[in-house]
Design goal:
Protein Transport Mog1p, Chain A, Fusion Protein Consisting Of Minor Coat Protein, Glycine Rich Linker, Tola, And A His Tag, Chain: A, Domain 2, 279 residues, 43% strand, 3-stranded antiparallel sheet, alpha+beta, elongated
Length: 279
């Protein structure tokens, strides 16, 4: 049976085993998997392999007939803030995704959405040639109820009609344990370096510090976190002259932005405000 060559990379990178927690009384022709505070169903004619280690659980699904790979990765550590989310995304998820996408040639990238329960999660899809055959890979990174997940679905175009059913079953039955059933704890993937200046409804100018006597032009960049309504939740300087830090942060906290809508819903985001100081 031929499978995507990327599987060998993940097998090498995550070779340690972790026992799969089983389920009781699954429907006919459907099996159920329960991990650490999450669960999902998958067709019985798909082979499940466990590539978990002490840092995360990883489950790979491969059809007995057809060329596809479904991967579910769940990190064991709690993810309560965007800073932790970003560390996992940039330090672990993105390198894995880059490795995966190296297998595609003549690729085209597009944005996609994944919906389960009342939650919409943005991701991206890459279409192109994989092993000289038309194929596609979908990737989703998100944290929900303090758990970070990475979903990957790769398939040949000629097998998609058969393998899509397994992907849809997993998404339909995917559940995460937690205190609430809403999406208030959802952290989603976005570009943290998006410049927000042009999207501001209100962008107060920072005051020029009186103790600075020279007239050299300076830039200060501030990373802000916005809530679903575009209100600034936090502000932190990432570079610039330290003498302008306080003024920049105070101005950033008073800024107001239009809501950012992803997959049809307003969401929390982060981005950059750039201030230019000229006397």
């Amino acid at each position: 049976m031929k499978v995507f060559s990327v599987i060998s990379f993940f097998v090498f990178a995550f070779a340690l085993h972790f026992s799969v927690f089983s389920q009781a009384d699954p429907p006919k022709d459907v099996l159920s998997l329960s991990g650490d505070k999450f669960s999902f169903n998958y067709p019985s004619d798909w082979e499940l392999s466990d590539k978990s280690n002490q840092n995360f659980q990883q489950f790979n699904l491969i059809p007995k007939n057809g060329n596809a790979l479904i991967m579910v990765i769940a990190f064991r550590s709690s993810v309560r803030t965007y800073d932790v989310f970003d560390q996992l995304k940039l330090g672990v998820s993105y390198p894995l995704i880059d490795k995966m996408l190296q297998g595609f040639t003549n690729s085209v990238r597009s944005e996609v959405c994944m919906g389960f329960s009342n939650i919409a999660v943005p991701g991206f899809s890459v279409s192109g040639l994989h092993n000289k055959k038309p194929g596609k890979g979908d990737v989703f990174n998100f944290a929900l109820k303090e758990k970070y997940f990475q979903f990957v679905y790769m398939r040949d175009d000629e097998d998609a009609a058969k393998t899509d059913a397994a992907w849809k079953l997993l998404i339909k039955t995917f559940k995460v344990e937690g205190k609430t059933d809403d999406s208030s704890s959802l952290l989603i993937d976005f570009n943290n370096d998006t410049v927000l200046n042009g999207k501001a409804i209100e962008l107060p100018r920072p005051t020029y510090p009186s103790e600075v006597k020279d007239s050299i032009s300076r830039d200060v960049r501030v990373r802000v976190a916005l809530d679903e309504n575009g209100k600034v939740l936090s502000a932190k300087v990432i570079d610039g002259d330290q003498r302008f830090y306080l003024s920049s942060i105070e101005a950033a906290r008073r800024a107001k932005f239009a809501p950012t809508v992803i997959c049809g819903k307003p969401v929390k985001i982060k981005g950059i405000i750039t201030y230019k100081f000229v006397r």
